[in-house]
Each structure stands twice: as C-alpha cells, then as structure tokens.
Amino acid sequence: MTKKRMLSYIDRPSPVHSLTGASKLIIFLLWSILVMVSFKTPMLICIMFFGIVFFIISKIRLRDISFILIMMSVFMVFNLTAIYLFAPENGVAIYKTRNVIWEGYGRFTLTWEQLFYELNIFIKYMAIIPPAILLIVTTHPSEFAASLNRIGVPYTASYSVSLTLRYIPDVQRDFETIYQAQQARGLELSGKAPWFMRIKRIVPLLLPLIFLSLSRIDIISRAMELRGFGKNKKRTWYSAKPFKKADFISLVISFIFFTAGIYYTFHDGSRFYNPWAG
C-alpha cells in the first residue's frame, strides 16, 4: 500500500514556513472572511491566483497532500451537484435574468446564470483550499496551538487542536499497519480485487482502528490529568515564536488587501458580480 500524507506538518525551507503560526492564522481568517462574503468574480480569481502562488512558494508538492486533495475534490463535486439538485434556479434569482441553455425536465433547467453562480462557488473553493492546507502543513502543531492561544482561544482548546493534528498521522499509520496485516493473512485488498469488494473488506478494518484510537485517547487523557493539565488559567509555550519583521509586513499587507476587498465587494450595493447587468 503506497503511503500518502494527510494533513500533517511538512518541514520545508520556505518564506511561508518562516512566518509565525499566529500571523498565518490571522491572515487565513482575513482571507476566509473575504472569500466567504464576496461573489465578485474578478477579485475571487485574483485571490485564487495568489493562493496558488503562495502554495508554490511554500515548496509543498502536490504528491505530499494528494490524499486530502482527492477528498476535497470529491466533496467539491458533490457540493456543486447538490446545489444544482436542490436549487437549479438559484442563479436566476440572484442575477435577475434568465438565459436558458437546456430546458430539461420539470424544474431541472440549465441556465447560464446557474452555471456562472456555480463557477463562482468553484472559484471560492479553489481560493480557500490552498491557504487552508498551507496553514496546517506549514505550521508545527505545537506552534499552531500557541498561535490559537495568542489570539484569545483558551489553551485547553488550543492544545486539543494540537493533539488532533498530531494524531492524524498516527491514525493513518495504524490503518496502514492493520491493512498490511490483513493482506498478510490472505485478505485481498490490492488493485487485483474489484473496487466494490475492496470497499466491503476495508470497512471491517475500521473497528480495530477505532479501538486503537480509543485506547490512545485514554492513555493521553490520563497522562494529562496526572500532570494537572487545565489547573491554571494560563500556560507558557515552548514552541511559540516571536513576531518578526516579515510577520508585521505580511499582516499589514493582508489588512490593506482585506479592507480593499471589502470595499470592492460592497461599494456598488451588491456583493455579486453580474455580467448581465446593463
């Protein structure tokens, strides 16, 4: 079974890695808010472009995160399909025009407005996924927890997030061990077996994985309890990084870009870019 990375820290000598977790988290929050509230297509394309550029600068390779990209792609296709199935005329309601491509059956028609609306949703995904992945894979879990605590999140919750990020590779490693053990016992799980049969045989592997996870959680929780975790209101962080010049410059540029983006989104009274407007 080929090993594929999930959402775990990947150390690279890049400008993105050199930023503190707190500054990356603040930038990501501003980035996310702007992407969520705006439907201005030119700006979304610009944000998507910068996200891809930052991804390239980080030196993270696509094969490092291939599994999560596949999962994101499946979810994105499912969501776009669900939007059309539940609201095939949503684009018409938003843009106040109706240009039919295909009449379809019943309420299921296909219009240029609906396609344009779903294109914007697709661009939103492409604009938010790269920075979301970068935030996790370029920030050490301990530093990420310190960053959450620095912006006001209680340290108990911050540490829980850190443990979750640390635990993802462990779960993957346990699954691979169970997977290979079952293959050694003669259970065919490789590409030679039909895909439906592989799925059917993989499902029972989840039970020992769950028990292993519960056992590890119990061990960690007992160890933390014995050490008095959560007794004090504050704590120090060994992995916390001080802000540097690059962090301040990045934050200033981000706030300027965020302010300009909010103004561009609402200056004409609508957060939607309408190519059919007169």
Number of helices: 11
Report the radius of gyration as a whole number of Å: 23 Å
> What portion of the residues fall into strands of 2 or more residues?
under 5%
Assembly context of the chains? single chain
Low-confidence stretches: none
- Biggest sheet: strands, sense, closure? 2 strands, antiparallel
Q: Structural class of the secondary elements?
A: mainly alpha
Q: What order do the strands of the largest sheet run in, or round the barrel if closed? A: 1-2
Distance between the termini: 57 Å
Number of strands: 2
Which whole number gives the mean pLDDT?
82
The SSE order reads: HHHHHEEHHHHHH
Shape: globular
In short:
This protein is mostly helical and 278 residues long. 65% of the residues lie in helices and 4% in strands.
Q: How would you describe this structure to a colleague?
A:
The chain has 11 helices and 2 strands; from the N terminus they run αααααββαααααα. The chain has helices at residues 15-18, 21-37, 41-57, 66-86, 90-95, 112-137, 141-150, 155-184, 195-202, 206-226, 245-266, and strands at 100-105, 108-111. A two-stranded antiparallel ribbon has the order 1-2. Strand 1 and strand 2 form a beta hairpin. Helix 2 (21-37) runs antiparallel to helix 6 (112-137), helix 2 packs parallel to helix 11 and helix 8 (155-184) runs antiparallel to helix 10 (206-226). The mean pLDDT is 82.
